[in-house]
Amino acid sequence: MPRSPMLRATLRSLLLTGALGACSSASPAPDGGTPAPDAGPVDAGTPDPADATPGRDAQIEGEDARLEAADFGCILEWPMVRHFRITNVRGHLDEALAVANSPTGGTYPVGTILQLVPSEAMVKRGRGFSPETNDWEFFALDARAGGTTVRSRGAQDTVNAFGGNCFSCHARAEPQWDFVCEDTHGCDPLPIATATLLDIQNGDPRCP
Ligand code: HEC
After folding, report:
1. pLDDT tens digits, residue range 23-54?
2. Largest alpha-carbon pair distance within the chain?
3. Which of 181, 187, 197, 201 for mutating ligand 1's site (highest number of atoms within 8 Å of CB)?
């Protein structure tokens, strides 16, 4: 499907005018410092037999995913779950999809990349990377036809192109959702229509 330059220009101006907004009402993480319940050491290597979600228990001890710009690419090549795109760079895509599709949530396995739009990504790092973010690393990316540039990366300090702090918004997700907001997990909604977000996603300039 051809992506019209006009649509792209409209989306760009939407982005530039800050339609994706800053998390204005969010004082940084009201419950900051309270890690999701399964981030604690108790969980390490002790799978709950009652928990059928494979999730993080699939990971290899010591495994990590410190990604570089070149590790990001066309998100339309990844499976879509509801609004977002998902992949896993450590071979745990099945486990990641099981968490994404679980009605009771779960903890995403190391190497999972989630993206709603080309310019923002959450990457699940190795256990212990950042207990406060349940080991998510947040990325602000510059995604262009020629490739990806990392604008900023980190745990609690990464901000998007409009100054919105990723962590402070995503920390509002109820703990069982592992910082994934979607539209039903307790985060403040984005001030931008879902259809527009999906247009931005479908306009990923890195896609062939
Ligand atoms: C204003 C609050 C806010 C800020 C700031 C924010 N997000 Fe989000 N983000 C959301 C909401 C709400 C959704 C769910 C949108 C939907 O599915 O309708 C979302 C969706 C996502 C998703 C898809 C998975 C999910 O959680 O639903 C990713 C990945 C993501 N954001 C990453 C980031 C990154 C990285 C940053 C910073 C560079 C960031 N976000 C900044 C609120 C925010």
Report:
1. 444 344 444 444 444 444 444 444 444 444 55
2. 53
3. 181
d(CA 160, CA 143): 13
- Per-residue model confidence as pLDDT tens digits over 150-176: 999 999 999 999 999 999 999 999 999
**Ligand 1 lining (C-beta closer than 6 Å):** 21, 23, 83-84, 114-116, 120-122, 138-140, 158, 160, 164-166, 169-170, 180-183, 187-190, 194
CA dihedral over 207, 125, 67, 142, signed as positive or negative: positive
If one residue of 15, 85, 120, 199 were mutated to test the ligand 1 pocket, choosing by the most ligand atoms within 8 A of its CB, it would be: 120
93 — alpha (psi -120 to 50), left (phi > 0) or beta? alpha
Residue nearest (by alpha carbon) to ligand 1 atom 39: 166
Q: What is the tens place of the pLDDT at every residue in 2-26? A: 455 555 544 444 444 444 544 444 3
Residues above pLDDT 70, as percent of the chain? 72
